[in-house]
Input
Amino acid sequence: MVTLIGKIDGSVAVPLMLLVLGWSGFVPNAAVQTPSAIMAIRIMTGPVPAVVLCLGIVFALFYPITRKRHGAMRAEIAARKAAESVTPD
Output
């Protein structure tokens, strides 16, 4: 699940960053960037990730899983795998 979320994050974050840089007037390979491009870089590498991280923390706090529920889920998965491995005669 963590890998999937990381891939989704990358597939959204990179194009979003490129769009924001384009809108801000970023010039590739330029020695000096415009003030708006510098501000966009600062915002997209500071406050935006911090807000997304805080939202993730809030989501995790309210995710209804306990050790007991986790154990039950693992047991159910194991039972399903065992049922799938039984071949009919």
